[in-house]
Specification:
271 residues; D-amino Acid Aminotransferase, Chain A, domain 2; five-stranded antiparallel sheet; 14 strands; globular
Length: 271
């Protein structure tokens, strides 16, 4: 089965899944979602994803929301319906309470890396709501459309001074002098894979700095890559048409991509 859906109390045909117009997620974007990578019936990072979801439910006062036990039961029921392979698992919760789980096949991108473009004025350090994965995702989607219109794959979200925040769908790391540098969680999402990556870098003996990154630094980085919970680590090859390093995936990016896959418990490395 290619598309499996659980809504509230059970499995439903995807074409019949619907939410009432009074649902807070429909009316205000008042809810949360998590996107996870599943392989052969397993969701290796489920504990981390559900911990982040629970923390956001508490921080935002989204009461009542589905329980963790109900979410795990719904994910298990969906995974029992799909074929072996790599899948995207998306969990959506709202304080109706609504529980929506969707499982769809995920075909990894075989491209060696991506092109990005910087968008100034799209990140604000004090915007704490962006530190939660809410359904109010219009700003990120707009940034993505602007990037695609400019001929890129993704956008880098920057403040007015050009300091680096995150991408439209991932955290960002740069490599400078053999060190990994990534922005702090201030107005950006603290990614599950970001945490795994930082831990994996420590195990690999690669220093990590969590600090603000000025435009002059990230534009002159030796390497750059994106990290998220579905694709793992993705090298950035160009920024605004200019090559990052030599324009190919760098040695630390490749090393960390394999290390993240191992640390995350993914049987197949992320693209």
């Amino acid at each position: 089965m290619s598309h499996v859906v659980w809504l509230d109390d059970g499995l439903v045909p995807p074409g019949e899944a619907a939410l009432p117009i009074t649902d807070p997620g429909v009316r205000w974007g008042d809810g949360l979602f998590e996107t996870m990578r599943a392989e052969h019936g397993r969701v290796p990072l489920i504990d981390r994803h559900l911990a982040r979801l629970s923390a956001s439910v508490t921080a935002l006062g989204l009461d009542p929301s589905p329980s963790e036990d109900d979410i795990r039961r719904a994910i298990s029921a969906c995974m029992a319906q799909v074929d072996p392979g790599v899948h995207r698992v998306r969990v959506t919760v709202t304080p109706r309470p609504t529980l929506l789980v969707e499982v769809t096949p995920h075909a990894p991108d075989t491209a060696p890396g991506v092109a990005v473009t910087g968008l100034a004025g799209t990140w604000w350090r004090g915007e704490e709501i962006r530190e939660h994965k809410t359904l109010s995702y219009a700003a990120h989607r707009l940034a993505h459309r602007r990037a695609v219109a400019a001929g890129a794959d993704h956008a880098l979200l920057l403040d007015d001074a050009g300091n680096l925040g995150e991408s439209d769908a991932a955290n960002v790391f740069v490599v400078m002098g053999g060190r990994l540098v990534t922005p702090p969680v201030e107005g950006i999402l603290g990614g599950v894979t970001r945490d795994v990556l930082i831990e994996a870098a420590g195990a690999e003996g690669i220093p990590v700095e969590v600090r603000h990154i000025a435009e002059t630094e990230w534009r002159g980085a030796d390497e750059m890559f994106l990290s998220n919970g579905l694709t793992g680590l993705t090298p950035v090859l160009t920024v605004d048409g200019a090559p990052v390093g030599d324009g190919h995936p760098g040695p630390i990016s490749l090393r960390m991509r394999a290390a993240v896959a191992r640390a995350a418990g993914w049987e197949a490395p992320g693209p």
